[in-house]
TrEMBL record:
Taxonomic lineage of the native organism: Bacteria, Pseudomonadati, Pseudomonadota, Alphaproteobacteria, Rhodobacterales
Xref: SMART domains: CM_2
Organism domain of life: Bacteria
Broad class of enzyme this protein falls into: isomerase
Gene Ontology molecular functions: chorismate mutase activity
Gene this protein is translated from: tyrA
Organism of origin: Palleronia marisminoris
Protein's name in the database: chorismate mutase
Length: 94
């Protein structure tokens, strides 16, 4: 009885993992477009005000959904660090 339930739960987790990866890929495609626009417009690659707004939004979303806000900030921070690195490359700041 336990085995079918465990298998079902693992399949659900696998589907969620796939959704996360596809979502991250799409997020990076969109942020690359932002980086291109910033570079073409002569805007700085980094936007500290936007980052602060996003951190607050992520914390609120995490709290609202029952996810540990610190964990959410850590994950989001990893993503944002990679985006900033990509924007610097696009703009030639590195």
């Amino acid at each position: 009885m336990t085995e079918p339930v465990l298998d079902d739960l693992r399949q659900r987790i696998d589907r969620l993992d796939a959704i996360l990866i596809h979502t991250l890929a799409e997020r990076f495609r969109q942020t690359a477009k932002v980086g291109d626009l910033k570079a073409k417009g002569g805007m700085p690659a980094l936007d500290p005000d936007r980052e602060a707004q996003q951190r607050a939004r992520i914390e609120a979303l995490a709290t609202e959904t029952g996810l540990d806000p610190e964990f959410a900030r850590q994950i989001h921070g990893l993503i944002v660090d990679r985006v900033k690195e990509n924007h610097r490359k696009i703009s030639g700041e590195q």
